[in-house]
Amino acid sequence: MAKEDEFELELGGPEYTVKVHVPVSLASQEDPQELAHRIVQHHNLPIYMHPKLSESLQEFALQSNDAALKRPGRDLLAALTSHAAAAPLNIAAFWQQQQQQQQEEPESSEGEEALLYHSFVHSREGLALLRLEHQYSKEVAMLVKRRHAAILSHDAKQAAKLAEAVSQSCSDAQVNALSSRALEASELLHAEWESSITALKEQQLRNFRAVVREGRVAGAASGADEEQTEGVGAAEDAPLLQESFTIHLGTQLKQMHNLRLIAADPVHLCDYTSHSAAADSQWWLPPQRIQTSLELYGRQLSGLVNLVDDRVNCLSGTKLEFGDVCSRATELHFPELQDQLAHIRERLLPQLCRGRLNPPAPDTPRREDKLQPGDVYITRHSNLSGVHVVFHVVCDDSVNSSSITSRHPVILGLRNVLKVACLCDITTLSLPLLLVSRLTEELSAAWCQRRAEIVYKCVKGFMMEMTSWGGSEMNTLQFVLPQNISEAQFQALAAMLPSIFRVSNPLMAA
């Protein structure tokens, strides 16, 4: 039952005096003005007394609440002073108990966990921890593979049932009922598998954090034994088409950069399962995982530019493929991809609706509920191969145009990506050279030449701006071409690069 305090107030003057005496509940959140109005109406008081009564009620509520908050502290102090001789012992015992509880149940912040992991993975137990991470990934990947197989089998059975019902000349109502039941069964199957995968990932995450706090992997070999038993996989299968260059940029103080041109699928580069030459071996460990983990909390991060549409989700196109790759391994350090995208939608889209980001030109209509070409949102990852940060650059069909200029929003988005990478210790960055993920019949060889030339020149200008931005140097920049590009087109684009960038040539003594 809520505690009530007695409110007393004398209103009026010497000729007309009114004494107000009412109980006021401290637990209620009633407005003092409304309560004053009710008192005036109930007791038929003059209306001019309402302001004074309202002000007094508000002041009384504040004082009563303040006294109620201070009362437990005063009671404790009174009890402590009543046993003055035993007080020091009680205080010492209390804080000792609190310290023991904190030691038994440590709560590490994100920064503390990062430091613990960084020191752990660089210690002699580091390989054992990486092997544990890889084992976790294999377990999740196997469960995801089983889920895909079960869903495909279920869909095939339901399609066969529907085809049989149609062939037997069933009525439309029967076919619709069968289709509805099939949809419900499919949704239930998806939910069951998703629940199983989520439960496995949560268990792995709890076990991983406990291992990092403890500083040792249970059952792992130590010292020289571990070095002899641990196996490290061979280097990844190199793309069929690739070229590397070393360039110098700058006028007075020249800086060296490594440029790489490859033909590959960007999503394929992020997938550990694509480097599985010896994945069935018990002790096999991908070298990409070692490099990614060692640099996770360092100052040499790796980034990837992913071209997406204007919706922040993983439901179609390359976003669906990227989300599938992320789901094959537990995210042990950052929120899951879906959680990061949900946070982005929660924080970013309301600002777009208020028109606070990228205000359009006066003659350009803007859809306030969606991102625009050139907008970028960022996700963090520890379960991808050779990638820590992914820059999702929004683009539309205008990137297929042959009249794209250096002021195109997607080009300016790349400038923002390079600036963020420079300021955030991302020293390796992969970006699509042609600003498309796949070549079609409409994109001719001449179109590829023009597009590569403008992107080369713009990126060169952005890289020369880096000296004024500060931050880390861009050590390696990787231009990614669509996987279905022909060898002749690749060689032509590779020959164009030295004519735009200043390539370092070694001096040969005669």
UniProtKB/TrEMBL annotation:
GO CC terms in record: cytoplasm
SUPFAM superfamilies tied to this protein: Macro domain-like
Domain of life: Eukaryota
Family matches, as Pfam families: Fy-3
InterPro entries: Fy-3, Macro_dom-like
Entry protein name: Protein C12orf4
Taxonomic source organism: Hyalella azteca (Amphipod)
